[in-house]
Amino acid sequence: MRKAIVTGAAGQDGSYLCELLLDKGYEVHGIVRRTSSGGETRLTHLEHDPNASGRFFLHHGDQLDTGRLVQLLSKVEPDEFYNLAAQSHVRVSFEIPESTVDVTGVAPLRALESIRLLGLETRFYQASSSEMFGSTNPPQNELSPLHPRSPYACAKVLAHHLTVNYRESYGLHAVSGILFNHESPRRGENFVTRKITKAVSAIVRGEQQHLFLGNLDAKRDWGFAGDYVEAMWRMLQADSPDDFVVATGEAFSVQQFCDLAFGHVGLKWQDYVRYDARFERPAEVDHLLGDASKAKAILDWTPTVSFEELVTRMVDADLQSSDKSVVDLTTEHNDAHSHS
Ligand code: NAP
Ligand code: GDD
To answer: 178-200: string of b/e by CB count within 10 Å (b at 16+)?
Structure first.
């Protein structure tokens, strides 16, 4: 039975990836922070899944704790290691740049160096990001210049180069997946897509009147997270380690997202969305649009969920959710008390 370690297992991608690996017959070891916010909701179904019984293990661990990492690596000796944990919110990274660089940029080095020093044959996946392209003109592919525009993106550039460097220097089977934005009903509530779909459902229920947003003109290449974890897995199955862009090849603005999400329930976004400068960033990334032809050619990977389907799935999931715990979406969870 193949074994995998997944850091950030309680995050959006971590939960989909654990599911995928369990479906493929792996023994899966997820690492979560003891204080993790997402674990209870995103992983509970797997902890109680009889098909995963005896094959799914959760371990407490922190990206800052090398000793714990070495202990888990030595104990599990995984075939594959997926490094997904990160402080992954771009605007928050302007508020806590130092810890973001440590968790998001330096921690992958801890994992790479530990795998190397332990002499493991573990294949390593680094969750790199289209944010690394920053202000580089679209479309962006594996050869496009990197121009990061936030501490988060700078940290991802560091981790990306370290991954490539450990491959070239020590022959580690290390790959960097440069993934464009991917969303789902499990998306964290302070990312713009989920913030919008949660607000639409709260407005429909009469629990909220307005939605406060920042820049509506930014364009993103939005895909479905379930498709993107499949690409991660395919990258590690390839014979030789390489770097891949994963994207849909279509970009839409935040305003277009609002238009579809509100339109899906028969509302006009203009009647509800209000501008709030708190949600702007000191430096914005205006236009991300990925060219994933290399992933298609080598990994035979293509996205299966269209933008429209993604938006409607997310709105429908929030409408169906009975969780009314986060209804004050006139402010944004985590964003509410901050200024940039
Ligand atoms: P996410 O939902 O924010 O998940 C990140 C996970 O990392 C969370 O579960 C978080 O745990 C954990 N984490 C944060 N700090 C940690 C620490 N010090 N020690 C241990 N765990 C820690 O992000 P995601 O959307 O699933 O993304 C997964 C990865 O892909 C991230 O590295 C992200 O930067 C990258 N990425 C994401 C996208 C995207 O569009 N989703 C695109 C490109 C790259 P808590 O629950 O404790 O906070
Ligand atoms: N979060 C947020 N909240 N974003 C807003 C808001 C708001 O109220 N109003 C407008 N936006 C704009 C942001 O300025 C940005 O241009 C866009 O919406 C998307 O913001 P996010 O959803 O926060 O995602 P992101 O693109 O900054 O970062 C995500 O994608 C990256 C890949 O490109 C994250 O998942 C990163 O971890 C990931 O690497």
So the answer is: bbbbbbbbbbbbbbbbbbbbbbb
